[in-house]
Each structure stands twice: as C-alpha cells, then as structure tokens.
C-alpha cells in the first residue's frame, strides 16, 4: 500500500498511483484529524471523494503518530491526551474516538487503537503496552460501526519478546477481527529480530484472513515476510527515498545523488514497467536531484512505487505458479548483480 499520509501519496497524482498497480492506499488518522479535521472531510463527502481516490483506503488508528510526533502526551486506560505537533492544540484519542474518526473519513479498513513501543524496550514495558493494546482492541471492535464492504483489523503487539507476541496473537484472534496486523516492528530492531517475531506470530493468525505487517519495509523485508505468511504491507520508504534521490530497481538501489551518474546517458532500468525508469537518463535525474527540482522527486517516486508494485505482482504470480522459492532466489541474485553500483 502506498502511503498517503495527509490524503495524498507525496509527489504523485492519484490516477498515476492507480496506473502503477496500487489497489489500495493508506491514509493517516492522526494527521487528518488535526488538519483539515475528520468532521470537515466527512462534510465534503468523505476521504475517497476529498482526495479523488475511488478505490479502497486503509486508515491507521493514529496511535503510532501520537507516540512519535505529539509534543506532550499522557497515556492512561482511557486513551491518550496529547498536544498537536502542528499548533499545540489539545486532543484526546480513545479507541472510541479513533473509530469515530475513521468512520468519518469513510475508510474501507479501520485499525484498532494500540500502543506501539520503540525497540529495544524492557519486557515489563512491552507487556504493559501489549495488554493495554488488547483492552483497547476490544473497545475498538465494540465501537466499530460495521458496514457492508468495511473491515476492522486487530493488531498484535509484544515488542521483541516471543512469549508476549504469542500471547497477544492468541488473544487478538480470540477477540475476532476481519484481518490481523503485526505492529510494533521496524521500530529500531534489526531485520533478524523482526523476522523472528513473525516466525512465532504469523502461524497463530488465521490463514483465511488478511495478515498485515505495519510500516514495513525494504524489498528484502517484503520477500522475507511474504515467505512467513504476510499478505499486506505499507511503508513510506519508496516515496521518501524518491524524494531524496534514491531509486529502487531490479538490480538493487541506485543513488542518483552520486557524481558518477552526472554523465551517464543510460536509463535507470531499461526493463522496468515504468516509462520514467526506461526513458529518463541517469544524468538528467542526477541533475534534477542536485538542483532539488520537484520533477526529480516526482520521477523517482514513480519509479520506486512502480518497482514495489512490480515486486509484489511478481510475488503473487510466483505463488500462484507454485514457484515462490525460486522467485525469491532469483530476485536476490539480481540484487547481488547490482552490488557495487554507485
């Protein structure tokens, strides 16, 4: 899912995002509740109409941004009281209010409110946040206004503790949601720790329901997580990298900031599905990046989103053909071929 934090996938037209193969985007409850406000978006016809995206939208609960962005915050059983990072205004986010905001936005998939802790953290802190998230999950489900075609996902927490992850997964499943997310990863821990948490968590989530790894990640993260049973992802990485001069390709990453590209007439990737990757020279993209031209950000964002969508399409096709293991090896071999490029 491309990330449309404030109701837009940065540097992209909605029609272009869809044309690249995206069927769903993620929007951010925290940012939209602060500006322009959920009630205003509802008055204007809901988020789909507001951002001109008639296809599915998943909204996160806002909890992660409260923890990471809010200036001052106070956490208790009721919810979180915090000051906006924009203007210092005071807000209260409870499970019930999070569900209300997401309903006002009109999202197709709503996420329960949870507490995400940064890693590493103590077992005591991870357990406290996990148990609170379970209680908030029950309240979120009770407050969810079920409607045809709409869903609510529960979130597994537990830090980097296998026992806590297993306990959380069992209880989240017992609460009963339309889909299940693994949260609180890619927050400072190395990849092997993240994958170890998936190894103990995913087998305990229903195989007939969507399984979503939140906020992840690199192309290698996607491959390894799908290998463990994850179905859905979101991450700002492809769009953020594009705005900072980095391109993702079949042969790995390409840093267009580097001077070695200044006189290179070759395209980024002659075999890419993305016209921008096939037709614009590395020299021109390097020039745009060095001049901080908006077009450079737009083209590299499009190239990156295309690569991520192509990678996921390749994964789906390989699974359907019963050759995912081979696809994984072939993809990693292609990345190795590009190692050492500037």
CATH architectural label of the largest domain: Alpha-Beta Barrel
* Alpha-carbon Rg, integer: 20 Å
Looking at CATH, which topology of the largest domain would you report? TIM Barrel
Unreliable spans are: none
Domain unit count: 2
Q: Please report the distance between the alpha carbons of the first and last residues.
A: 29 Å
The CATH homologous superfamily of the largest domain is called: Queuine tRNA-ribosyltransferase-like
The CATH first-level class of the largest domain comes to: Alpha Beta
Binned, the helix content reads: 40-55%
How is this fold's topology laid out?
Blueprint lengths: L2 E2 L9 H6 L5 E3 L1 H6 L3 H6 L3 H4 L6 E3 L3 H7 L3 E3 L4 E4 L6 E4 L1 H11 L3 E3 L11 H21 L7 E6 L5 H14 L3 E4 L8 H11 L9 E3 L5 H9 L4 E2 L3 H7 L2 E4 L2 E4 L19 H5 L2 H9 L3 H27 L3 H14 L5
Parallel strand pairs: 1-2, 2-3, 3-7, 7-8, 8-9, 9-10, 10-11
Antiparallel strand pairs: 4-5, 5-6, 12-13
Helix pairs in contact: 6-7, 7-8, 8-9, 10-14, 10-15, 11-14, 13-14, 14-15
Describe the structure.
- Helix content is 46%, strand content 13%.
- It has 342 residues and is an alpha/beta fold.
- The chain folds into two domains: 3-234, Queuine tRNA-ribosyltransferase-like (TIM Barrel); 240-337, no CATH class.
- The strands form three sheets. Strands 1-2-3-7-8-9-10-11 form an eight-stranded parallel beta sheet. A three-stranded antiparallel beta sheet has the order 4-5-6.
- The two termini are 29 Å apart.
């Amino acid at each position: 899912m491309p990330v449309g934090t404030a109701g837009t996938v940065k540097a992209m037209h909605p029609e272009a995002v869809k044309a690249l193969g995206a069927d769903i985007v993620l929007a951010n409850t925290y940012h939209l509740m602060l500006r322009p406000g959920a009630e205003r978006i509802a008055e204007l016809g809901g988020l789909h109409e507001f951002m001109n995206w008639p296809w599915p939208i998943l909204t996160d609960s806002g909890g992660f941004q409260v923890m990471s962005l809010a200036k001052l915050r106070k956490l208790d059983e009721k919810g979180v009281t915090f000051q906006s990072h924009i203007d210092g205004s005071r807000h209260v986010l409870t499970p019930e209010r999070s569900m209300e905001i997401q309903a006002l936005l009109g999202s197709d998939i709503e996420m329960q409110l949870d507490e995400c802790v940064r890693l590493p953290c103590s077992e005591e802190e991870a357990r406290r946040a996990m148990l609170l998230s379970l209680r908030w999950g029950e309240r979120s489900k009770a407050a969810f206004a079920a409607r045809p075609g709409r869903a609510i996902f529960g979130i597994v927490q537990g830090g980097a503790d296998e026992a806590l992850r297993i306990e959380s997964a069992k209880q989240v499943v017992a609460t009963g949601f339309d889909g299940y997310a693994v949260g609180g990863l890619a927050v400072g821990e190395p990849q092997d720790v993240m994958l170890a948490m998936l190894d103990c968590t995913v087998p305990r989530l229903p195989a007939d329901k969507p399984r979503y790894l939140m906020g992840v990640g690199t192309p290698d993260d996607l491959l390894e997580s799908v290998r463990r049973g994850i179905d859905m992802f979101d991450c700002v990485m492809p769009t953020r990298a594009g705005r900072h001069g980095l391109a993702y390709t079949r042969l790995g990453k390409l840093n267009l900031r580097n001077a070695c590209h200044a006189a290179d007439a070759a395209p980024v990737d002659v075999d890419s599905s993305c016209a921008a990757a096939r037709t614009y020279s590395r020299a021109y993209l390097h020039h745009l990046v060095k001049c901080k031209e908006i077009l450079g950000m737009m083209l590299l964002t499009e190239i990156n989103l295309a690569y991520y969508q192509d990678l996921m399409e390749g994964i789906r096709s390989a699974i359907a053909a019963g050759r995912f293991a081979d696809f994984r090896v072939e993809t990693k071999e292609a990345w190795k071929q590009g190692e050492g490029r500037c």
